[in-house]
Amino acid sequence: MRESGLSTCDIAEEVGVHRTTVYRWLKRWDEEGNLRDHSKPGRARKITAEEDRRIREYFETHPFSNAIAAREHLQLDLSAETIRKRMKEMGFRHRTPAIKPKLTERHRELRLQFAQRYDEENVYQVARSGRVTCNVWGWIFLHGVGEVTEIEGRFTSDTYLEILEEVMLPSVRSYALPFPETILFMQDNCPVHTARGYKGKPCRADFNGH
To answer: Which intervals of the chain form a coiled coil (predicted)?
Structure first.
């Protein structure tokens, strides 16, 4: 591209790189006559291909072993840290065997009896999923449990306010609690409880009149 008359800036814009990058590559071509990668600096690799093969085979057959045991077993002139790094590069890691009680024939018999007792033909399925949930709301006080009511559909701030007005307040009055006229109502910071427009509305309006 330079031979065709393009400047460094033109070449950089054409290939989509920075002008400095183009300048360095052109300078290298002028000085060395090629653009081959330079040899990488750094210390020569300690582990030979043969040692690599032996390390891999060792950990494939001894998954619960470690670098120190591998060095001693294979009689390698390498540090445990070097072997440990090579393990990581190969995808191996030190594994700890799980400690479990040994199963006896009696254990197997009991397990079979349990499985047969709860076989599908011996269990009456009441729902396809095997699980049924029911959302409820209730209140408690010093002397026990108050009213509990089922929540139908989504539990929103409007639903919560309706439960307080239609369920909780009437049930509080029906208990004829031996308390002063002012009742302290406590709740958590659930978003439904702290929604804008609700916050404490029934307490001020109704509890003081109990």
So the answer is: none
